[in-house]
Design goal:
heterodimer; A: alpha/beta; 6-stranded mixed sheet; 6 helices; 6 strands; disordered C terminus; B: mainly alpha; 0% strand; disordered N terminus; Rab-GAP-TBC_dom (chain B); GTPase activation (chain B)
Chain lengths: 212, 279
């Protein structure tokens, strides 16, 4: 089988923004697809449970730079976790989504983080914890503080959102995009260690590949 | 790029050529009209038995079934009724199966608190969330506190009791909803669904040998028939050939890829099992 390592697009072609893969993780019905739909189409509606994978792309402007987010959305049900290694592969960022009205979904998000870390090196993937459904705050089971503390303990970014009310949804993706660009720029400035890459005159980013 | 249908959140294929040139169609393609009431009755003898099963399956494969008689014919295709059964025998079967169904439901309702906790966690939690977001655009399931949604919910929960090895996988609500909307009766729908499930790859987990086998066939077909596209997938690396984008096609038999009328027509053609090596 061919070499599989996905890397963000080289920046050699200036008209093409760099592409990053972002995966949505979290248990069923926490709002993964709704966040993607709100962000990509600015829409909110009743969404069928995700079966298999769904894909979205969106070009994000961060200051003067822009990047392309490839958003991968998948089923939340645990049964489907067995396809996850395919899904995680080459991810640059992950949104770890839970429902603030469900303690259980918060605990499952923590489990997802462990699964993710089994597949990818933590330093290679940017993770943001997202507490969705703030519109249902009267049924809240997970406080803002709890979310924030867990995120800090694991060095994750953290935000609360409402896909329904369009609260902080674009902020989540922008924050991730911004951080991805910054990390990418830092890596580009770092001295190149891999001689093969230097000989190829390939972009430094390509030396990194994904986690295996 | 495909377009998102206004009332759907998923992209749908549009059918660009409704009429294929005759050189690309099966020679018998145009010889069959949609199976309507009178044609259906012609397939039955005076006892209500299907006279020539093969002919019926062939007619359905090429022509489809008129919406007005789907509820009556689907139970045969889904192996709830046998083709040899008489009308009388089918009525007796329905009664017996209704009793069996209520026993399954009784079993579900009399779980110990401990069993119930496990059932809730593994099955009910997800079913409850899924049934209220399945086929909401269909008038049959629309609105708050719709009793049909409640029927769908009970069918899925009872199925998980009936077949605990399968339990519930997301996507099963997509499969049961159209059957319920045509067959209407809850117990009959349940048994049709049991028949349908035996022919899906949900019977195993969403990803294992069965899915792998299907994807292998698909890869081979692509390699033989769509060489350029296959090469494109190869050039994408391992991700391309994993074909994650078509897992749902296989799991739901194109239910979400086509508008419902077309999808159900595809289902019927598949269920007819015409020209298959082993039926």
């Amino acid at each position: 089988m061919a070499q599989a390592h996905r890397t963000p697009q080289p920046r050699a072609v200036p008209s093409q923004p760099r592409a990053f893969k972002l995966v949505l993780l979290g248990s069923g019905s926490v709002g993964k697809s709704s966040l993607a739909l709100r962000y990509v189409k600015n829409d909110f509606k009743n969404i069928l449970p995700t079966v298999g994978c769904a894909f979205f792309t969106k070009v994000v402007d961060v200051g003067t730079a822009s990047l392309k987010l490839e958003i991968w959305d998948t089923a939340g049900q645990e049964k489907y976790h067995s396809v996850c290694h395919l899904y995680f592969r080459g991810a640059n960022a992950a949104l770890l989504v839970y429902d603030i009205t469900s303690k259980d979904s918060f605990l499952k998000a923590q489990q997802w983080l462990k699964d993710l870390e089994k597949e990818l090196h933590p330093e290679e993937v940017l993770v943001m914890l997202v507490g969705n459904k703030t519109d249902l705050s009267e049924e809240r089971e997970v406080t803002f503080q709890e979310g924030k503390e867990f995120a800090e303990s694991q060095k994750l970014l953290f935000m609360e959102t409402s896909a329904k009310l369009n609260y902080q949804v674009s902020e989540v993706f922008s924050a991730v995009a911004q951080e991805l660009l910054q990390r990418d720029d830092r890596e580009d400035q770092a001295p190149q260690e891999d001689a093969a890459v230097a000989l190829n005159e390939g972009p430094a980013r390509q030396a990194k590949c994904c986690a295996h | 790029m495909k377009q998102v249908a206004p009332d759907k959140t998923c992209m749908q294929f549009s059918i660009r050529r409704s009429k294929l040139p005759s050189s690309e169609t099966h020679p018998e393609e145009s010889m069959y009209k949609r199976l309507g009431v009178s044609a259906w009755l012609n397939h039955l003898n005076e006892l209500g038995q299907v006279e020539e099963e093969y002919k019926l399956r062939k007619a359905i494969f090429f022509g489809g079934i008129d919406v007005s008689i789907r509820g009556e014919v689907w139970p045969f295709l889904l192996r709830y009724y046998s083709h040899e059964s008489t009308s009388e025998e089918r009525e007796a079967l329905r009664l017996q199966k209704r009793k069996e169904y209520s026993e399954i439901q009784q079993k579900r309702l009399s779980m110990t608190p401990e069993e119930h906790r496990a059932f809730w966690r593994n099955v009910q939690f997800t079913v409850d969330k899924d049934v209220v977001r399945t086929d909401r655009n269909n008038q049959f399931f629309r609105g708050e506190d719709n009793p049909n949604v409640e029927s769908m919910r009970r069918i899925l929960l009872n199925y998980a009791v009936y077949n605990p090895a399968v339990g519930y996988s997301q996507g099963m609500s997509d499969l049961v909803a159209p059957i319920l909307a045509e067959v209407l009766d809850e117990s009959d729908t349940f048994w049709c669904f049991v028949g349908l499930m035996q022919n899906t790859i949900f019977v195993s987990s969403p990803r294992d040998e069965d899915m792998e086998k299907q994807l292998l066939y698909l890869r081979e077909l692509l390699r033989l028939t769509h060489v350029r596209f296959y090469q494109h997938l190869v050039s994408l690396g391992e991700d391309g050939l994993q074909m994650l984008f078509c897992h749902r096609w296989l799991l739901l038999c194109f239910k979400r890829e086509f508008p419902e009328a077309e999808a159900l027509r595809i289902w019927e053609a598949c269920w007819a099992h015409y020209q298959e090596a082993d039926v």
